[in-house]
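In the previous chapter we treated chains in isolation. Here, by contrast, the input contains two separate entities that must be folded as one system, with a combined length of 985 residues.
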Amino acid sequence: MKTAIFFWVKKMKYDVTVIGAGPAGLAAAISADKNGAKVLLIEREDKLGGVLKQCIHDGFGLIKYGEKLSGCEYANRSIDELMKRDVSLKLRTFVSKVTKKKDGFNLLLSSSGKLENIETKKIIFATGCRERTPKQVAIHGSRPAGVFTAGLAQYYLNVNGQMPGRKCVILGSGDIGLIMARRLTLEGASVLGVYEAKDSPSGLTRNIYQCLEDFDIPLYLSHTVTRLHGRNRLEGVTISKVDEKMEPINGTEEYVSCDTLIVSVGLIPENELPKTLDVPMSKYTKGAIVNQYYETLVNGIYACGNALHVNDLVDYVSESGEEAGKFAAIRDKSDAETIDVNFTSDFGYVVPQKIVKDSETATFYFRTSRIRENAVVKVYNKDEEIFRKKYLNLKPPEMEKIKVNIEDVSEIRFVMEVSK
Amino acid sequence: MNMNRKLKNEFGNNVKAKLIDDKVILSGEVSSWDEKVSAGLLVAKQGSRVHVVNDIVVKNLVEAKTIVSSINDKKLEGKKPDVLIIGGGVVGCAIARELSKYDLDILLVEKEYDVALHASSRNDGMVHPGIDIKPGLLKKKLNNIGNEMYDDMCNDLNVKFNRCGQYLCFTKNNLLIPVILTLPYFNLTAAGRAHFVGRKKLFNKEPGISKDIKYGLYFDGAGTVCPYGLTIALAENAIENGVAISLDTAVISIKVEDKKITSVQTNRGEIYPKMTINAAGVFCEEIAKMAGDRFFSIHPRKGTNAILDKEAKKNINTIYTSVNSFNGDKKSNHTKGGGIVSTVDGNVLVGPNAIETSEKENFDTEKSSIDNIFKKQKKAGTWLSGSDIITYFTGVRAATYEEDFIVEKGRNTKNIIHSAGIQSPGLTASPAIAVEIATILKNEMPDIIEKTNFNKYRNSFPRISEMDEDNRREYIEENPDYGEIVCRCEEISKGEIVDAMRSPLRCDTVDGIKRRARPGMGRCQGGFCGPQVAKMISEEKGIPLNKVRKGYEDSYILLGEKNEI
């Protein structure tokens, strides 16, 4: 009986399967289809758009569309385009398991009433990222209700129309935290302050102005939340000053009464599935190691968007999806040599981490590891300088993008020169 | 009196001991809780039936009040159960299930909103071989009997149990001979067998272990279980066999006449039980006192564990801990030393530590505790990394000064049976404690008869992600909800969450569902599935979203519709 079922289930075969239908996945699916591939797009939620669905604030699309859109509007542009194309779509579908086959991959998909296998030649992981939790930044004390990651609070407020809190403390000056400070204020909640353990903000400068300063919300740098109080609902938090190593300084504790703590302390690329396929990950980005074609070190597996590295702007997320989709559709196995991209500790990271020596140019994304003024970023091929760009300001929250001529390179090295 | 001389040396004239009947009553005043505890430990004899009752007052210490549900109704008014069990921890629930084999009207009351909310969910889930307990103690006996009952019990209750074994690891060559010489002792006194393992075999079995380890002892009797999962299963099976469980129900006072309990006052009405069983965990002393039968004292001891991401699981298959000094049975160490435990659900637990505390319900965690347990366990697990921590918790254990279990009928009051001082290895011993209580009960109520229709099996909902593909497909085709994944980290389906909400014991909170079906247990800690689970509770229970609770009373997740403000 069971074997009969096994033979009866007809397996669909796709050229490219995109996992995740946020901005990266949408762009990847559209682009793979444009480039002639038979494409399947899988999304575990019931709607397309990923986290953009809950981003009702504006500021999206300045680079891609040259106008200021809300997250929902931005997503809708891609969704409209997707609908015009011949992409197979599976919503409310969860990828339970991926298995490597001789000529591609087998995916086990779980959805309401159905468990099915599909086959695909290539996979693009566009799985986005998850939020770091309060426990991951060593907040101790009690475990009451009223403690949210910023994205979760945003979901409750913007999707469910429910107030996560009335008297809020925000930990972390990441962009979602700043956006939520403004959002909660607009809904009538009081935001007592944004506390940041680092000595500089983690979010974009424009968000510091538009979300905090315009609303008189104080930002406390070099401060963190160390303790929660309250058994049922949160009653207050302990705030401490921190030293250069971001360790709390004894004796600086201060109690702040509040009913809600919103934590915006960073994002972690979601790569649980590629890890099961032994796709090597970068310790700097926490995403897969890729070449300029967005292909990981496992043949046929591609990665893009925030699953690859956490981007500052959605425009770049779409851009990487578009590229990954294109190359997944058109590229064959290459015999060309692959070389490493090296960088000094002045950089937080550089993506891609590998270069296949079969193209003329490559686009690199990087972040500085600390705030720099008047810095010169140079790229060397051995001792030969092949690229140079001067920056008045480099800040860790802001990603930079450069295009480098890589013809006949044998080694790539990023260095930063800082003039005093 | 020798006791008082010892006390005088330590505390001057501030503290006095007096032997009355079979209790040592301590009185006087000290300046700190730790002093009060050390006075108790100074005069106590481990395992003795003469217990310390510690009435020493700690200057300026205001003891926290027991937290009681604000519900005040008459739901239980006038009930006359044959047996009233106070406490829904693993012991109370094991007793309820054991007694449900008999033709008895049984009521279990638990003051919290769910079972297993105190020590029974706040431990490392180890089923102990009992290697660090002195022979002759009651807890040794009950540990060993209980340990052997685990395979059958967990099988019947559909609870995951892994008899994975435990390694004690040694770094010092000079301990080699003493360690080998203890083998016959352990084989005689521990549950299961003890084996010597050389370095090569040890690394073969546990490749993640520290390279400093030279050899070890392996105890094949050790295992792991999900402690709250077991408690819930025991409670559900007890309910299926006719036991009534009343949650949010706290005992407020007990009426005793002629050395007999006549009624028990709760926040939900007055109950008139024939027999009362005290399984109140850290509150067992209070219950004994209310029942006029206080002959022991509890000094609560708290311990913290860290839970690591499933990715850390690659470093450990069993349970291991590094041992620096070794005294065999000579030293009974109540801190237990903790260890690194690979759980049945694929996580790793590290800890616990042991700190004396006056606060029975303070489950706060401290960064210093985590730092200390990591420092200690890194000796065997050099791979331990703070970045793998997904969460941490603190439990408070009910230790007596004699550091032994008390499982006996009242000494003064006739119709009460105590299961008191149940600290580690209480989880292991719980099924044996339940049998012991049943034996005592049968002595007291000789005419009780066994039921013919006791069903030892508990039907639990399916664990979809753990099934093979064909099995899983059958379930999904039967019930479409098993195909819809709500919690992506743990791969939990909508069907499993609905099943959890419809199980025999009330379950209507996010944390309650988390303990049963595991959504939110993973690395994102409910960041994605939280809203889905909250919505499902709202729909299933017919309550507005802003009345959905995380767990405890009034622990509302949301504060109302956004335009209400």
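The domain at 337-420 of chain A is CATH 2.60.40 (Immunoglobulin-like). Confidence is low (pLDDT under 50) at residues 1-9 of chain A. Compare these points with the single-chain example from earlier in the chapter.
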